[in-house]
Amino acid sequence: MWKQIFKATLWAGSLDILAAFLNSYLRNKTSPGIVLQYIASGVLGEEAFSGGYATMAIGLFFHFMIAFSCTALFFVLFPRLKFLHHSILVNAVLIALVAWVVTNLAVMPLSRVEQGAFIFSRVLIAIGILIICIGLPIAVSAKRYFLKAQSG
44-88, pLDDT tens digit by residue? Predict the structure, then answer.
């Protein structure tokens, strides 16, 4: 199961960080390096923005750790919660909503990242990105893995 969790993490995490790069560039002309340093600043504070490639790598590591946590949790819950067996799309939305809530109501307030204003349109875009880039890859991977395990 861990091999599939790592594959799903790589898939979801890669799609999500690419979407974050694109969204930040289109919205503010922000470079991918700054996005990664912003992620690292959750732990390192403002110093992350002067850390160069090292803090970019730390930001990428944190990003994939969060993606891994979402993936592992869903894979653990999937066989235990029968209502998760019905719809990949519903699961993708659930994963996205949980990821957004945990990130914005727990991780961000506990981090050293400066909190921005709540802008409803940006929240909808973020949740849409999470549904497509995190929720769907994780939901599809779990469904395939457990169907294959059940039949084989």
Answer: 999 999 999 999 999 999 999 999 999 999 999 999 999 999 999
Q: What residues make up the domain containing 112?
A: 2-151
Instruction: Count Cβ atoms below 10 Å from residue 141 Cβ, excluding itself.
Output: 21
Q: Which of 138, 62, 140, 134 is nearest to 99 (CA)?
A: 134
**What's the structural domain count of the chain?**
1
Take residue 75 and report the two structure tokens written for it. Answer: 């894979």
Q: What is the DSSP letter of 114?
A: P
Residues 6 or more apart whose Cβ sits within 8 Å of residue 81? none
103-123 pLDDT tens trace: 988 888 888 887 788 899 999
Is the per-residue pLDDT at 152 higher than 80? no
For Cα atoms 7, 80, 100, give the angle at the middle one, nearest 5 degrees. 60
Chain-centre distance of CA 68, in angstroms?
8
Category of 115 on φ-ψ map: left (φ > 0), alpha (ψ -120 to 50) or beta: beta
Cα 90 to its chain centre, rounded Å, is 17
29 band by pLDDT with thresholds 50, 70 and 90: very high
